[in-house]
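Limitations

Structures in this collection are predictions, not experimental determinations, and the ligand pose is part of the prediction. Treat each record accordingly. The example that follows, with adenosine-5'-triphosphate as the small molecule, is included so readers can see exactly what is and is not provided: the inputs are given verbatim, and the output is the predicted complex.
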Amino acid sequence: MTIPAPAADDPHSIAIDVEGLTKSFGDTVVVKNLTMQVRRGLIYGFLGPNGSGKTTTIRMLCGLLTPDSGRGTCLGYDIRTDAAEIKRHVGYMTQRFSLYQDLSVRENLEFVARVYGLPDPRAAAREAITRLGLEGRAEQLAGALSGGWKQRLALGACTLPDPQLLLLDEPTAGVDPKARREFWNEIHALAAQGLTVLVSTHYMDEAERCHEIAYIAYGDLLAQGTVSEVIAASHLTTWTVSGPNLVALAETLSKRDGITMVAPFGTSLHVSGPDRAKVDAVIAEFRTDPALTFEPAEPSLEDVFIDLMGRAQGGAAPARPS
Ligand SMILES: Nc1ncnc2c1ncn2[C@@H]1O[C@H](COP(=O)(O)OP(=O)(O)OP(=O)(O)O)[C@@H](O)[C@H]1O
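Predicted complex:
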């Protein structure tokens, strides 16, 4: 499902605008020549394998890290020289965002409001508690909250100073599906109020809830756009196969010329490749087996990401059943 992006009323209304960002740690280039633009009011998903440079990019965007080369602005402020201004207008939820476990929900929010120098910390905390539906839990210790409620509290803390941009680094890692859904409803409510949200995630259902996404692998930005645009740009031909002995079949198919990805999805395999003629030729060969059912399919976002990752790793690296 693709969510319609907010209308671009003002083409100059860009929250993030960076060009050629590069960052190395020692000899390792972690972000390579990254160019991206994020319009205001958008929920922009940042996806990619572990260690591909997402956190490093986020840290450059909010002025916590200086790029080795490249330029750009965040909310119109220069990421190299205006870090203090950026920090004032950006809410950043780090991967290990932690609250004081032995303070209550209310005390945590009041504390954060004081750190931000808000004029009335108590009122700000009260308002955040109401907005996040935390009324019944206001006096509960943060350490006693479930993972989902902890993340909502963390989101509440990040939004206390009324930021224009939220940078959320894997905010729902390890959180159950219902709590993730509620967290995302909150993100959409914030975006509907005009907040721009850049969120990194490994979850496909979350990627599909973004207005636009970018896929970064090993420092390279390999795809960006709406979910439909990213899928269409992959030019993948995909078939699903069901039947017996799929593990052995996957092994065989993944070695065939033109097949760049074979991945199990539930009780079937997804078989993909970028050249329709080659994929169809391989499928035609196996279709003669009456025990197997082959159906053409739209590539899923996950198919596209697995394919992109395989190519980034240097060629056809099929995902085999584990
Ligand atoms: N301060 C640092 N010093 C040295 N290496 C670093 C530093 N920060 C990150 N790295 C390395 O840079 C690479 C990219 O890390 P980064 O955290 O940006 O990736 P990521 O895409 O956010 O990964 P994940 O999905 O696992 O969070 C990793 O190999 C990491 O070990």
